[in-house]
Amino acid sequence: MIIVLKKWTLSDKADLIALCNAVDRTYLSARLPYPYTNADADRWLGIVELNEGKMGIFRAIVVNEKIVGSVSVEKDDKNPLEAELGYMLLTDYWSKSIMTKAVSQICEIVFRELAIERIVAKFFEVNVASMRVLEKNGFVYSGIIEKHRSSIGNVGNVKVFYLQRPVGAQDTKQVVKRSETPASPPIRTSAFTNFPLIISGPCSVESEEQIMATAQALAKIPEVKMLRGGIWKPRTRPEAFEGRGEEGLAWLREAKCETGLPTATEVATPNHVELALKYDVDALWIGARTVVNPFSVQQLADALRGVDVPVFIKNPVSPDLNLWVGAFERFQKAGVKQLAAIHRGFAYYKETPYRNFPMWEIPIELTQRLNVPLITDVSHICGNRELLQATAQKALDLATDGLMIECHINPDEALTDAKQQITPEELKALLDNLIFRSKNSCNVERDLANLRGEIDDIDGELLQLLARRMEVSAQIGEYKKSHNVTVVQMDRWKKILADHVATGSDLGLSSALITEIFEAIHQASIERQSRVMES
Ligand code: PEP
Ligand code: MN
User: Which residues line ligand 1 (CB under 6 A)?
Assistant: First the structure.
């Protein structure tokens, strides 16, 4: 059973009233009014709002999206080093270890958020179940204070227990928090040690059922090491679905608890960072639209200063290697150590079969400059299902360290990127058909691809230059025509060729090669000029 502790907010008023009126009061303190009215709820929620994180920690206990109890730890005015634990739980939820887990979670939060040394708990002696909850959480019995009156007027002895701040647990208010829920499982693998790292999951977290069903299916595919899910979606048009936000994070965490898959999501603002970490997201990625903006990247780097969380940096939308490198430098300077690149292709000025043109040489050069793992997001490169297999294979051949592939339990109904998402079964088939090469042979491929890319670039430049040369020849043709000069001027040509052979020789190029190339160029030039003169 997944137990989530949620901050109380004013919108929980009706649930709070229902809880306080329904809860069994045998062992509750007389401080809790009965009947519990609208005014009582307003007053208490107001106190919580003012004091949360300062004088106490106050949480609703949520099971299956329903508030079934409340747990809080409040500071003691008289003793600033102490805070007192109190809780209540609807009777139907007793004897299911819910309170043991809720107390464990809140104690961790308290020692992280409040500068106190111990949590004190006072319970009626006859409340045996609560004694067990405390013992399981390491509370130590310290004595009896006699005669307290309960909410329903019972008078009895009250026992006092203490939980001392664990050694090494510091209240680290200044840094973003990693976790509020020790109950959630640890990360299955450290993100950047288990290659190839296959990250899969839906483009967007849409509903609890969708992410849970997708995650459960993905957990059965052994190659899949991490669950992705977009919570905040950068959309072109404002009326498009922009993600579920915080409620989606709770579902993502449930999916992780259920499957053991570590999770990753996109963050674009410091607030996203804080929320993602609060909900135990295991790795963050910075999206292509965010990486184009150095101000945003710097804000994110600052938000992650001192936080040990893996961060993937996608390439910027534009093919700008330095901008991508700059983003890495900003995170490195902020002390973020686990960094990896995600190649998701680039916006291109011409129509191509891809949604985002791969320009493989750019990510390859990035890894040569920065020595970071490289993940290829084939879904956003392709933009369709048909190209995924070949593109994933190409990425592996170029020695990518992992793949990101969007997967949805029902792709056709997806709220974002429907055309490029595949079902878990299709993903399994795709992965089964891939050839995962050894890292060494991949390096050979990667180096070759890089060199071939360079050759392609140089050939392109040669062609541009040849075209320009022909254009200038045509202009000379026009000039000669109007000034009645012959096309071939042998003396000049002989001199040019001799100069080129000499320069070529300085550059290590044979005289035969230079003569052959320039005779061919000269010949084509003469033909072009002749056509101009005959026209
Ligand atoms: C995504 O991964 O869903 C996404 C929006 O990616 P990108 O930033 O690469 O467009
Ligand atoms: Mn997407």
Answer: 203, 230, 234, 266, 287-289, 314, 344, 377, 380
DSSP label at 172? -
Q: How far is the CA of 91 from the centre of ligand 1 (A)?
A: 45
**How many C-beta atoms surround the C-beta of residue 267 within 10 A?**
25
The answer to whether residue 259 scores a pLDDT higher than 80 is yes
In 3D space, the residue among 276, 269, 213 whose CA is nearest the CA of residue 248 turns out to be: 276
pLDDT bracket for residue 398 (50, 70, 90): confident
How many beta carbons lie within 10 A of that of residue 278, not counting itself? 18
Report CA(423)–ligand 2 centroid distance (Å). Answer: 14
8 A C-beta contact, residue 362 and residue 321: yes
Tell the residue nearest (CA) to atom 1 of ligand 1: 203
Spatial separation of the C-alpha atoms in residues 444 and 267, rounded to whole Å: 35
What is the spatial distance between Cα 67 and Cα 78, in angstroms, rounded to a whole number? 32
Helix (H, G, I), strand (E, B) or coil at 330: helix
Q: In the prediction, which pLDDT does 305 show?
A: 92
**pLDDT reported for residue 194:** 67
What are the backbone angles phi and psi of residue 31, rounded to the nearest 5°? -70, -20
Gap between the Cα atoms of 11 and 28, Å rounded: 25
DSSP 10: G
Contacts of residue 257, defined as CB under 8 A and 6 or more positions apart, other chains included, come to 2, 183, 184, 185
Among candidates 35, 125, 19, which has minimal Cα distance to 71?
A: 19
Q: Is the C-alpha dihedral spanning 152, 153, 156, 162 positive or negative?
A: positive
Give the integer Cα–Cα distance in Å for 184 and 257. Answer: 6
Q: Which two tokens stand for residue 183?
A: 């109950």
Alpha helix segments (H runs only) across 279-339: 288-291, 294-303, 321-333
In order of 5, 92, 109, 263, 326, the CA distances from 270 in angstroms are: 22, 40, 21, 18, 19
Residue 287 CA to ligand 1 center (angstroms) comes to 5
What is d(CA 532, CA 473) in angstroms, rounded to the nearest whole number? 10
Looking at the DSSP bridge assignments, the partners of residue 148 are 156
Instruction: Give the nearest ligand 1 atom to 228 CA.
Output: 2
Map residue 18 onto helix, strand or coil.
Answer: helix
Strand extents, DSSP E, 372-469 = 374-377, 402-406
**3 state DSSP class of 332:** helix
- Alpha helices (H) along 78-183: 98-113, 128-136
Nearest alpha carbon, ligand 1 atom 2:
203
CA 351 to each of CA 128, 392, 464: distance values in angstroms, whole numbers, following the listed order: 72, 21, 21
Residues belonging to the chain: 535
C-alpha 223/C-alpha 431 separation (Å) is 8
Q: Which of 44-53, 167-176, 345-354 has the lowest mean pLDDT?
A: 167-176
Output the residue whose Cα is nearest ligand 1's atom 4: 287
